[in-house]
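Appendix C: a fully annotated inverse folding record. The material below is reproduced so that readers can follow the format used throughout the book. The structure is listed first as tokens, followed by the designed sequence.
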């Protein structure tokens, strides 16, 4: 914890949670962008109807609608941007649960939504994303091989630590405090987007009313936040974020099992075994893409 506290001193030292905060937590490449879009559209549906031509999600990358906790880095200590957001705030984080500031973990009010995805798809998605962004900055990507990334991933040597450990911490917390931590599976959300969105809205304290259901609002939000719809927007096709990363990089295929186009069966078997062993007895099964909870 010491190392991370040093890395994110501003969050640990300065972030003041509010009782109605909602945190979106994920291991990178697990569907963070999608969860940001869904939660933003749901929480702000009174001000912005999904059909609005100038809906913020038609003008901005979901990452600019929901910020990462500590996104402003060094300046955060001086000027915590989250402090100026209106309640209820939605903030995202890739931090493991055990490394969240105690004030969030212990907070009576803070609610956390975790999105989890099959580690093989996470690994492949991350490898392709890093290759693309590295190429954008003129870095050598030839030497960034899948084999090397795979070996490091299997050893848990990647940003935010071992994927399965990250998932397990949030999973266990969701069992311990179901009203405070909602554990969602990316694969289940793809299969059942409307019911997943209802679950998310209910958890966030803004369940859809009968009238909204009858008016087709759930399907409209699902559609607005779908990969195809977001990908087709000008801001995604042509825009970049503050780091110079093209917005389109955050949207690729968004399917279950694309890992099989990149990993060998031996690689898959090795990773499945590592993950299966680590999660044994936890009730969380990430070895196959047909997980549900
Ligand atoms: P793939 O690379 O497998 O296509 P994150 O948002 O955590 O960075 O995760 C990125 C992954 O989520 C990418 O997966 C991306 O295509 C997918 N994704 C992005 N937006 C999505 C959406 N609206 N619906 C479903 N998947 C989405």
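Designed amino acids, in order:
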């Amino acid at each position: 914890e010491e190392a991370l506290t040093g890395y994110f001193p501003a969050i640990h030292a300065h972030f003041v949670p509010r009782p109605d905060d909602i945190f979106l937590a994920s291991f990178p490449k697990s569907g963070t962008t999608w969860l940001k879009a869904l939660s933003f559209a749901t929480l702000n549906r009174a001000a912005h109807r999904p059909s609005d031509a100038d809906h913020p999600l038609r003008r901005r990358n979901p990452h600019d609608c929901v910020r990462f906790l500590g996104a402003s880095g060094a300046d955060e200590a001086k000027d915590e941007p989250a402090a100026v957001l209106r309640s209820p705030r939605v903030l995202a984080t890739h931090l493991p649960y055990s490394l969240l500031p105690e004030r969030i973990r212990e907070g009576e009010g803070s609610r956390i939504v975790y999105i989890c995805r099959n580690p093989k798809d996470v690994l492949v998605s991350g490898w392709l994303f890093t290759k693309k962004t590295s190429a954008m900055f003129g870095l050598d990507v030839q030497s960034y091989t899948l084999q090397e990334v795979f070996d490091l991933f299997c050893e848990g040597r990647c940003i935010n630590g071992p994927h399965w450990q990250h998932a397990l911490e949030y999973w266990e917390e969701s069992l311990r405090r179901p009203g405070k931590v909602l554990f969602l599976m990316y694969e289940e959300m793809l299969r059942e987007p409307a019911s997943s969105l209802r679950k998310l809205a209910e958890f966030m304290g803004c369940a859809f009313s009968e009238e909204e259901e009858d008016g087709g609002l759930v399907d409209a939000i699902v559609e607005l936040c779908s990969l195809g719809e977001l990908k087709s927007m000008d801001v995604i096709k042509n825009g970049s974020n503050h780091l110079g990363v093209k917005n389109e990089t955050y949207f690729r295929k968004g399917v279950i099992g694309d890992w099989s186009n990149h990993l060998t069966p031996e690689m898959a078997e090795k990773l499945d075994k590592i993950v299966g062993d680590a999660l044994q007895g936890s009730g969380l099964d990430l070895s196959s893409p047909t997980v549900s909870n």
